[in-house]
Amino acid sequence: MKLSGWGNYPKIDTRLVDFSSLETLSEQVSNSSELIPRGLGRSYGDSSLNRSMVVSTLCFNRILSFDEQTGEITCESGVTLEDILEIFVPRGWFIPVTPGTKFVTIGGMIASDVHGKNHHVNGSFSSCVESIVLMLANGQIVPCDRNNEAELFYSTFGGMGLTGIVLEATFRLKRIHTAFIREEVVKAKNLGTIMELFEQSKDWTYSVAWIDCLAKGSSLGRSILMLGEHAEANELPKSLASEEPLKGMDKKKLNVPVNFPNLALNTLSIKAFNFLYYRKEFKDRKQVFSNFDSFFYPLDSILNWNRIYGKRGFTQYQCVIPKENSEKGFQKILELISNSGQGSFLAVLKLFGKQDGILSFPQEGYTLALDFPITKKLFPLLNQLDEIVCENGGRLYLTKDVRMGKNVFDQSYGEKVEQFKQIKRRLDPQGRFQSEQSKRIGLT
Amino acid sequence: MSNKTVLILGARSDMAQALAYYYAKKGWNIQLAARNAGNMENIAQNIRIRYQVEATLLEFDAIDYFSHYDFYRGLPVKPDGVICAVGFLGEQKRAEQQFDETKKIMETNYLGPVSILNIVANDFEQRKGGFIVGISSVAGDRGRQSNYIYGSAKAAFSTYLSGLRNRLHAANVTVLTVKPGFVNTAMTKGMNLPKRLTAEPEEVARDIYNAQQSRKDVIYTKWFWSPIMSLIKNLPEKVFKKTKM
């Protein structure tokens, strides 16, 4: 069957299988030549694609235990973040680290070692995971944590499914008292200003900036900073105080049922969108209260929003540049993009704190994420962006990548590549776990 | 407000599990009865944590007829409803040649369910309330060459449920006959079922819950099997006997 990542590019033909029991899975794994596990397939490119076989973990979705005192939860890897939030937000719990969509599996969150709007405070998802259980290439089931099989544990975070199939994970939820976020929204006239604002706002748990990346000259990098904290019950304004403070998610969603025609998102419409968006916040700084669902997952309310990009598909270019080079690096990047006229519909800037791990993406610095519809002109532009990222000591996020070359990967991830390869050789000597991405970047 | 309890017989099957989750989501306590019930602790935990209802595991063997009385008497809580999801498709060709396969098909799909439901019926009749759901099959609507041994057992089960419905009406006990068509479960794995006609267990669970709650008598799931089976049932025997379904 035809499979693709979230960007609908590339589409490949492959066998998608699931498993009814661990015994069946063990047989499937040890008898296959090549395979990659897959959750909800929300990585943008070819990270969960393999032309030979893809194993879906979605049926493996039971919650196995939950401690009401500590918030410690153990569940199978196919449980989705949406599930967790639906069940536990009404009971006063939240996930300490969340990506920008709730339509991901726990296994996927581990494989990508996802980060959110609070990385500078809470790190990546690995920081709240106590232990995991994996099936290795030989069909063996191995539990691991920071003290037992530590190499397996650390290499699996950000390991993109290449170390084995995550079966189970034990992680901690954090207490919340309302389902609302107290938000402050601040205008920034350019890149320098927004970075200053990030630094000044380090006390806030959640921070993210939306960038109009078509702005030029002195307005290059003009943006809106959104800061957030979980609202306490006594902070809620009168208009919200009457509602149940821990009310769950509103299930109403719009759907994009078919691919939009290819011209739907040209540069003009993107310019218009950005201008309108920026214009909407007419004060310099304002405070709002929003439901957690719209603060953390604004796009999830439009199911299949990736179809807005049409049949050609799209990719997201997400890079991180270390702090000392961030401003000059992103200045160059935004100039290049603005001059190219290849409008990015969505551009997001976040602050990263320190990160350990092997192939985990974050580095202390700033991360920029930009969507691009796939066109022939795009790839040379992205190659130029790669150069700027590399010369500034940064790297790309594998979960979003669909076209990075081996050289750029090796250069940007440095000694971590060989470190991972060594561990992989021990865990999977026959190289069973491979994806189209891992082959492309020379990781397998 | 205390929750009601539903007993699900043959709880290990995909359809039974989908039913267990659905009823639990609606606030019912669940009793899961199957062989080697102890191996289903992760399913029970999943139900308890997700839906905050009770989930009890019970050892039950559909064809160990003489254990059924003690099984029912020994239930920790008397259920408000019973769903019989016990079933075995078997292999038609093997059953044609070897009687042990035929015997297993007849016992699992008919004798076993009848044995336990007789006991349940007596109890519910006395208590003057409750519901019984029997999962039969469209295969019971007409015997056809590809699976008539299974089909005949299901036909017998449907007739049993019909009589039970008649008897228990006066006691305010509802009996629902469920006739699924193609469903995507372990039972039909490996069979090349046409995608548009095949239901997911979750869809079937929803159909069953809604029908049971609205006190329906017989449902086909999905709904389009009703007109399909009408057509098939109305084919004259002269014509039907020549088909290769």
Short description:
Chain A is of the alpha+beta class and 444 residues long. Chain A is built from 14 helices and 22 strands. Chain B has 245 residues and is an alpha/beta fold.
Main features:
heterodimer; A: 444 residues; alpha+beta; 5-stranded antiparallel β-sheet; 14 helices; 25% strand; B: 245 residues; alpha/beta; 7-stranded parallel β-sheet; 9 strands
Verbal overview:
- The complex is a heterodimer of chains A (444) and B (245).
- Chain A is an alpha+beta fold and 444 residues long.
- In chain A, 29% of the residues lie in helices and 25% in strands.
- Chain A contains 14 helices and 22 strands.
- In chain A, helix 10 packs antiparallel against helix 11.
- The model of chain A has no long low-confidence stretch (mean pLDDT 90).
- In chain B, 46% of the residues lie in helices and 16% in strands.
- The radius of gyration of chain B is 18 Å and the shape is globular.
- Chain B starts with a strand and ends in a 5-residue tail after the last helix.
- The mean pLDDT of chain B is 96.
- Classes of the chains: A alpha+beta (444), B alpha/beta (245).
